[in-house]
Amino acid sequence: MILFEHLVKRHGPRTVLDRISFQARQGRVTAFLGPNGAGKSSTLRILLGLDRADGGRALVGGSRYRTLDDPLRTVGSMLDGSGAHRSRTARNHLAWVARSNGIPGGRVDEVLEQVGLADAARVRVGRYSLGMGQRLGLAAALLGRPDVLVLDEPVNGLDPEGIRWMRGLLRGHADGGGTVLLSSHLMGEVAGIADDLVVISGGRIAAEGTLAEVTAGHASLEDAFFALTDPAQEAAR
């Protein structure tokens, strides 16, 4: 399980996260939604040890990410695309990630096949499309067979077939007992895969619950999202 408790983050005088608390549960896909600048990226970066919180805590299985003995085997993450240098091939990039984390080299070919990049394994990343870069980022996240996946905009740049494939992969991961926390701006895709929703606006949690609970009284998830993140609603909170 992923747990955020009273998380606070400030950038100078501005409060980016204002004591936010929520959880992403095992066996569930949790979608983390919010407009640009709402605090989504800051939350995920703190969870993954890339930023420090000014208060509260973010835990994976009861531990802070920085204290995990084998982080890549516990948490697979994808923030800001693949993270691979443009001059490297996909296979070389993944082989380096595997070696640096004590993962057998044979796992590289397995994940390349899993994400549909086996035929492009020796192509330099600089020649990849945005969607191929997303697949490579996911391959790196899957290398350690982690129970927890944390993904920022995982379907960005994917074509309809790729989106359908991603939906099936994440659904299968959760149904197999894994934990999935993802952010996305694509409301239709979120509605098709998420078990639970967390909506953040202005650094505060605007709503959380199951899809049915968050969308109650609204015609669609998109309508609920815009109502919950309306500046007037934010001021009222």
Automatic annotation (TrEMBL):
Keywords: ATP-binding, Nucleotide-binding, Transport. Residues 2-227 form the ABC transporter domain. Pfam families: ABC_tran (PF00005). It comes from the Bacteria. Belongs to the ABC transporter superfamily. This is ABC transporter ATP-binding protein. InterPro entries: AAA+_ATPase (IPR003593), ABC_transporter-like_ATP-bd (IPR003439), P-loop_NTPase (IPR027417). Gene3D superfamilies: P-loop containing nucleotide triphosphate hydrolases. It comes from Promicromonospora vindobonensis.
